[in-house]
């Protein structure tokens, strides 16, 4: 037996501490903990035998290596799954585009083949007759289909939104579904990206009805402007190295301004439900925008029904029939107006899975942290916004994806969800502590044992994250807030991580109960042991119009809405000796 080394009690204690500190971080699972505790018990009771110690230490080190390797495999799997989901999305988009192109080409190829058949076909043999007959049949089918499409398009213009015979097709609404069907035929299942609808001279839809009804989107330019001057400040290197000194670009106000290059023509108005004051304002705003500004107005189906109940005058208002058509909204809407509170802003953002038109939020809620515009002055506000330029805040969103442990491959992953405020992972109705293993770009962060965890955007820093003890962060600051909910530890302080990281939160296999994820306070999903939530910054931010500018609006909100650091001023009764 090899010579045995005595372990001093302090060494034993430090080993014990090492495993204790690993427990805090959720590094060591309960099984290995049990082993090491039992091993320690045996060591204390029996005379120290050096060979056993060495063996134990080697065993413990091997266990840690295995645990680390397993964790790395799990992390690699999660990031591979997230990446696969992203590639799948891009592939499907590309495939839809290619299909659409093929759809255009067969017609030409087919005509070429038909001509070829026609010239080669000779009626003096059976094959020739078939060759002659078949192309005519195919031609007839194509002509019939095109003719049907043409007559359908014409009928759209002759019907109003209620399917009745219209007296004047000029003002008849083209329901988004009709436009989108035409657009779908021209542009593929996933619709088209906004930049395609800006392309000059190449109408994105051939149908005459759709073209003259849905105008092309207004184009605009975003630029940095410093201290009020409207300069196109070009992005400079963040860090420059001159004469041995590393410097960063000078700090100047990075207010972003939106300047219309063509006048906006189509507006979407979203309203908070079950509010009489909102309904009244909506009716007034819609008629003013139609009469004075000659704009096209989209509203939700619920709102169109409410307006038509009020008066059939509102028949010009347009809407959609199902979620499929909502996906096309960003190709038609130049500006979104919300009438409600913060939740209505969150609702508006959630309607756009990709790029989001600028949002102008009128305050008709109770708090209204993100709704700076006063509804009483809606005419002046909208006048200046339609005119431009507009100071905007680009509010970044988090893209969240649930990765199920049971998922066999990346095709079983669920659709990513975008949040403007935050995603929370909490214990739901379970009475047990959560046990969430958190990773940042595959580096282990910590194990959250408490009521849960909030991953918040800087826009959401003044919402749930604030209530849980997180910092308030200016919405233009790029970052992700990592805020625990009632952590059962005296040392767990909130973090602010960079915007470029990918955060993965996995429900530990040792968790005593499931966890629940909720997205901007809604759509709760249960997470079982081993399930993970992968979050990263989404590519499309939510541009919200500022009353003054990003910083003034933010400071006004924390002063007026949250009464931040509101305190009686100390009375001044003359200078005093220090
Ligand atoms: N304990 C809490 O503070 C708590 C609990 C649950 C949800 N929330 C927040 O409510 C949001 C959902 O809002 P809702 O209006 O749909 O539900 P809601 O009607 O319950 O509103 C919750 C409150 O949060 C305020 N709020 C929302 N976003 C905000 C923001 N970015 N900054 C400051 N305040 C904000 C709203 O004005 C409202 O007063 C969630 O995203 C979450 O941030 C907070
Ligand atoms: N267009 C909409 N359709 C369906 N639900 C909506 C719509 N707009 C808002 N909501 C929901 O209605 C609820 C209340 O909306 P909102 O938060 O704007 O009003 P509020 O709570 O009175 O104002 P605040 O959020 O400022 O306190 C929110 O939970 C929101 O998700």
TrEMBL record:
Coiled-coil positions: 70-104
Region (Disordered) residue spans: 1-22
UniProt keyword terms in alphabetical order: ATP-binding, Coiled coil, Kinase, NAD, NADP, Nucleotide-binding, Transferase
Keyword Transmembrane helix: no
Catalytic reaction equation(s): NAD(+) + ATP = ADP + NADP(+) + H(+)
Biological process annotations from GO: NAD+ metabolic process; NADP+ biosynthetic process
EC number annotated for this UniProt entry: 2.7.1.23
Enzyme class (EC, first level): transferase
Keyword Kinase recorded: yes
Molecular function per GO: ATP binding; NAD+ kinase activity
Short name of one Pfam family: NAD_kinase
PANTHER family, per database record: NAD KINASE
Family statement drawn from the similarity comment of this UniProt entry: Belongs to the NAD kinase family.
Protein name as annotated: NAD(+) kinase
Source organism per UniProt: Nyssa sinensis
Top-level taxonomy: Eukaryota, Viridiplantae, Streptophyta, Embryophyta, Tracheophyta
């Amino acid at each position: 037996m090899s010579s045995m080394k005595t372990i001093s009690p302090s060494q034993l204690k430090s080993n014990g501490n090492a495993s204790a500190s690993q427990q805090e971080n959720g590094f060591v699972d309960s099984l290995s903990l049990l082993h090491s505790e039992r091993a320690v018990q045996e060591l204390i009771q029996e005379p120290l035998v050096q060979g056993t110690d060495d063996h134990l230490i080697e065993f413990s080190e091997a266990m840690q290596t295995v645990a680390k390797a397993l964790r790395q495999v799990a992390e690699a799997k999660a990031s591979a799954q997230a990446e696969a989901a992203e590639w799948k999305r891009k592939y499907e988009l590309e495939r839809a585009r290619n299909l659409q192109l093929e759809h255009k080409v067969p017609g030409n190829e087919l005509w070429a083949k038909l001509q070829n058949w026609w010239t080669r076909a000779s009626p003096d043999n059976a094959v020739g007759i078939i060759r002659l007959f078949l192309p005519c049949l195919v031609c007839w089918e194509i002509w019939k289909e095109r003719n049907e499409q043409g007559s359908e398009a014409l009928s759209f213009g002759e019907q109003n939104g209620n399917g009745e015979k219209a007296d004047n097709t000029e003002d008849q609404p083209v329901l988004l579904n009709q436009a989108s069907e035409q657009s779908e035929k021209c542009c593929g299942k996933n619709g088209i990206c906004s930049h395609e609808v800006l392309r000059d001279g190449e109408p994105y839809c051939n149908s005459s009805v759709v073209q003259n009804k849905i105008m092309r989107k207004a184009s605009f330019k975003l630029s940095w402007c410093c201290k009020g001057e409207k300069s196109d400040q070009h992005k400079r290197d963040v860090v420059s190295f001159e004469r041995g000194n590393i410097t960063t670009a000078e700090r100047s106000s990075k207010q972003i301004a939106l300047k219309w290059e063509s006048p906006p023509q189509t507006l979407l108005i979203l309203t908070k439900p079950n509010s009489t004051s909102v309904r009244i304002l909506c009716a007034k705003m819609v008629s003013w925008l139609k009469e004075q500004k000659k704009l096209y107005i989209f509203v939700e189906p619920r709102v169109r029904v409410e307006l038509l109940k009020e008066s059939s005058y509102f028949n010009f208002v347009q809407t959609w029939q199902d979620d499929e058509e909502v996906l096309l909204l960003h190709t038609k809407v130049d500006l979104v107006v919300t009438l409600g509170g913060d939740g209505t802003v969150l609702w508006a953002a959630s309607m756009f899975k990709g790029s989001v038109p600028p949002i102008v939020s009128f305050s008709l809620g109770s708090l209204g942290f993100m709704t700076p515009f006063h509804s009483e002055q809606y005419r002046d506000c909208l006048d200046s916004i339609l005119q431009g330029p507009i100071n905007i805040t680009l509010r970044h969103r988090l893209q969240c994806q649930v990765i199920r442990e049971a998922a066999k491959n990346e095709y079983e992953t669920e659709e990513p969800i975008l949040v403007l405020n935050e995603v929370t992972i909490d214990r739901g109705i379970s009475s047990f502590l959560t046990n969430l293993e958190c990773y940042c770009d595959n580096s282990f962060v910590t194990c959250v044992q408490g009521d849960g965890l909030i991953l918040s955007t800087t826009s959401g820093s003044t919402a749930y994250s604030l209530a849980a003890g997180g910092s308030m962060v200016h919405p233009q600051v790029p970052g992700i807030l990592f805020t625990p909910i009632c952590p059962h530890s005296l040392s767990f302080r909130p973090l602010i991580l960079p915007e470029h990281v990918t955060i993965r939160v996995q429900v530990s296999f040792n968790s005593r109960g499931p966890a629940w994820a909720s997205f901007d306070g809604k759509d709760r999903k249960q997470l079982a042991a081993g399930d993970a939530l992968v979050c990263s910054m989404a590519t499309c931010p939510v541009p919200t119009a500022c009353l003054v500018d990003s910083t003034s609006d933010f400071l006004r909100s924390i002063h007026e809405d949250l009464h931040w650091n509101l305190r009686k001023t100390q009375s001044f009764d003359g200078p005093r000796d220090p």
